[in-house]
């Protein structure tokens, strides 16, 4: 069995540790001529390197201060308060590395060696060092009571209170043997610490063989604090391949609380962050759409630039789902991520939809990004499922994914010239909702756009041309469209403001397979001239608030837009929609998305912004915007020919406010108010507080009153509260609650608990929600409406990973600002 475990060990660390442990095997031959100890401090030149010998360890160890505590473990009572993070408190202390921050950029083999001993005796071919033997080379340090070296056999020993150290590593032992010719060595009764990884271990024998493999005999490894035995891996033999970054354990026992709970005759795991082939930790949970759900991922590291993840997933009420994900990276053809899943027969789906011919379920996903020679950029975003309920039934790690209304299938190729951008793309969608029509297919769409660098106080050309071929399978009108615009802008910019006049002409041409009406034209066209004048001023002053020195700006802005009217009643709507009104909409030159409508306009937008910046660090702490559009003519161009003109003389009032008093507190809000009806049409409020210890608190409110909908739609009036709260050093509670004020019911709620110790953590999460589309309010009058639920379980063994990654995904999805702690 191959077991992949997340052991965050640096690949270079063990090799450095071993070089420390056996440095005497390389140093002593050079030191051998120093038989006369009456001249301490003498530097001896050798053809390989230089070594300076002294009888004062302080001269060798320099500024290194050995910690007073065994294995560098400092009790929490002696840890400075600023370093007492949650991990330190849970563990009752932390490791202190006296060499932390030491530079490791130098080439260690080229650094002179310093050595010291109280006594040196030469007997034949053997040199004996005694009395506080110390050796230093750059950032490497070695100490012991006694050392011997045979110059003829090139073998030696080190005995008594051995200490081998470099940044991030400490190794202690009682005796060591080495052979400087073969590189073989062994340290008996050793203990070691990896400071940054918070890992400690023991070994009856620490050996290095001729091939450079590190072998731990009778060893153990654990993330837990020195006095804790919550979990550990113990093995008859552990072999570490430094070059490959791979550990192999034989006769391995996994112990919980000192009690063996799992025996594996053979297992492999990574000792650095490189990917390794093997079995990953499982995911386990249960939900109302399938029952007990167990997935066990198997990872295959095929090559450095491509890999494969296969996940057999058994779902109690459905069957076996085979999921896979293949990743490939190549500097010529970019990054590819190909995934999918297949279930031969979904038992529950067959019961729920007996009229369906097949009950097999599948999904295919392809993601690609590529860039060649900084000129050609390619993209693929392809997703397709066997049926519209696939994501709801089988995607359990994200509510956002479960509520998608369509799957996109896109392929695009861009040419990035110095002054031109050319884009070719094909796109279509698979609808996941029965009452929604499929969006039109673009087969293909070709766009060319001039994008030269804008120069101040000069004319800047504007040119864009686009050809699109639209198709669909639901009987709507199809055809080809050509859109083009050309013009110029003249940008004037000063320290106190800006002024940008713009003029351009827009043209639309169609070639339709069928006209949209019996009296219509199969080749309709439209053209419209557009002119705008955009200007603003910048004012600033120094001020103060709550003892803080601030810089305040005031930025008024005017935007006049004029666009000719052209009758477009005989033209289709392939990809256009009316944009949602907001503050940014004040300064756009169209109120439509897409290219099917050349909107008419004769209007003036008025906006004003104020900002406050902290004088000390320049950080923006507050900004507010408010604005409105004043119309001088009715707007005749509408999305549908039968829609009446818009006759309001002024728009809604759009406002935004953002407040960031500290890096941990944020308040964001926007409101759209209609002065003609004296009603708020939309609003949003999000407040967040982040504590230094990882606590998160969010409160939000969203409101939307549909004003341009062709069909009656309910008002969205919803509040959300979410947070992650440690109740003590070990217990934490997390929750999320979304409440509909219109329906007077909870629409989504999640609650969970976490128990976090020094070296392991457990989480239990329970989620309830209504099965709705994205942005849809449930119809509570529907008798078939039922709550769905999901229960997920997660265990993390710190330093080795854990199972239940779906829990982490749901927490990030539902609690804004939640970040998984890294230990």
Reconstruct the topology from this structure.
Elements: H1 13-21, H2 23-31, E1 43-45, E2 50-54, H3 57-61, E3 73-75, H4 86-91, E4 93-95, E5 113-116, E6 119-123, E7 126-137, E8 140-150, E9 155-166, E10 169-179, E11 185-194, E12 199-208, E13 214-222, E14 231-241, E15 246-256, E16 259-270, E17 278-279, E18 283-287, E19 291-295, E20 298-303, E21 306-315, E22 319-330, E23 334-343, H5 347-352, E24 361-372, E25 376-385, H6 390-394, H7 399-402, E26 406-416, E27 420-431, E28 441-450, E29 459-471, E30 479-490, E31 492-494, E32 497-512, E33 525-537, E34 539-545, E35 548-563, E36 577-578, E37 592-593, E38 601-614, E39 620-631, E40 653-662, E41 665-674, E42 679-690, E43 696-704, E44 716-726, E45 731-740, E46 745-756, E47 760-770, E48 787-797, E49 801-803, H8 805-814
Parallel strand pairs: 2-5
Antiparallel strand pairs: 1-2, 3-4, 5-7, 6-7, 7-8, 8-9, 9-10, 10-11, 11-12, 12-13, 13-14, 14-15, 15-16, 17-20, 18-19, 18-48, 19-21, 20-21, 21-22, 22-23, 23-24, 24-25, 25-26, 26-27, 27-28, 28-29, 29-30, 30-32, 31-32, 32-33, 33-35, 34-35, 35-38, 36-37, 38-39, 39-40, 40-41, 41-42, 42-43, 43-44, ...
Which terms would index this structure?
mainly beta, single chain, 823 residues, 14-stranded mixed beta sheet
Unreliable stretches (pLDDT < 50, length at least 5) are 1-51
Number of helices: 8
Rg from alpha-carbon coordinates: 35 Å
Structural classification: mainly beta
Oligomer status? single chain
Largest sheet: 26 strands, antiparallel, barrel
The number of distinct β-strands equals 49
Beta content comes to over 45%
Q: What distance separates the N and C termini?
A: 27 Å
- Mean of all residue-level pLDDT scores: 84
Helix fraction by DSSP (H/I, runs of at least 4): under 10%
Shape: elongated
